[in-house]
Amino acid sequence: MSTTDPDGQPSLSTxxxxxxxxxxxxxxxxHRALIGEGFVIRRALPTAxxxxxxxxxxxxxxxxxxxxxxxxLSVGPHPHIGLQTFxxxxxGEIFHRDSLGxxxxxxxxxxxxxxxxxxxxxxxxxxxxxxGRIHAAQLWIAxxxxxxxxxxxxxxxxxxxxxxxxxxxxxxxxxxxxxxxAPAEVFSPxxxxxxxxxxxxxxxxxxxxxxxxxxxVMSGAAEVEGERLEPGTLLYLGLGRxxxxxxxxxxxxxxxxxxxxxxxxxxxxxxxxxxPTTRSLPPQKTGTPGVTxxxxxxxxxxxxxxxxxxxxxxxxxxIIAW
Length: 322
Description:
The protein is mostly beta strands and 322 residues long. It is 0% helix and 47% strand. It has strands spanning 23-29, 31-35, 39-45, 56-67, 74-80, 83-91, 94-98, 103-106, 111-115, 120-125, 132-142, 153-157, 162-165, 168-174, 176-177, 180-181, 190-196, 200-206, 211-224, 227-229, 233-238, 243-259.
C-alpha cells in the first residue's frame, strides 16, 4: 500500500545487509507510516536491518482497527512497475480498481494479486461510506529479470487451501506448504502461510533449509524459537532451518518464505507516492505525459468511472535497486 512521502530519499545499495547464509534470529521493529487519508500501518519491509526476504520486498500490516463513517480506506490511483502486489485480507472489505479495467472487492480469507510488469495503476478504497473495521497485510514481490517487463495482469483468489495442525488453521497463501499448493501465479520460488488459532496452539512447522524465512504476528502473541512476538515485530530466521517451533495463544501468525535469496544487495526509497519500486530508474518529475499523478478523492467507490491511466514507470522520485 502506497504512502505519500515528499521528503523521501533513496538509500545506498551498500547499506543493505546481505543474507547471512545461516540460521539467525533478527528482530525487526516495523515503523509506522500513513496510507491514504491517515490510516496508520506497520511497515516491516523494507527497513535498514532487512530490505527483502528473497523476492518479498515490501510488507505492510494494516489494523486490526475500526474507522468512523466516511473515513474508510482511500488510497488514490498510483503506479507500480516490475513487481507483484499481494493483498491478504483478514477483516473488512477493500475495493480494488486498476488501469486494466478490473474492479474487485476483496473479502476476508481472499487474496488479490496484481502483476505490474511493465506498468499498471490502481486504487484501493473502502467499499461504502459506512463505519467498519479493517485488518490486512499487503506484500510486494519483486519480479525476476525475465518477467519484469511482462504484460500487467490482475487475479483474484476467493478460496485458498487450508490445513489444520496442532491447534492452528493454516492457510497457504502462496507457493507450496504443508502438502498444499496455493493457486496464486508467482514467478519465483516462494511461500506464504497464515496460521490462525482460537486458543492455545503448538506446532513445529517443517521448512526447506534452502529458503530464507521470516515470521510476523498479526494479532495476539506467539513464541517462535524462544522469541516472544507480538504485532509490530518481524522475526527474520535466515537460511538453513528445517523446522521452526511455534507456541501461541489466540494468535494470527504469518510466515513468509523465499528460496534462493537475491545475491545482489538492495536499496530502498520511494516514488512520488512514497512507495518503493524494484528497479533503478532515472528520477523524473511527476506529471510526465501518460502517468496519472493526481490523488483520487475519498468518494471513489464501485461504479465510479473516473479514468485511471496506465503507468509507464517514469514518475519515480526514488527507487529500490539490485
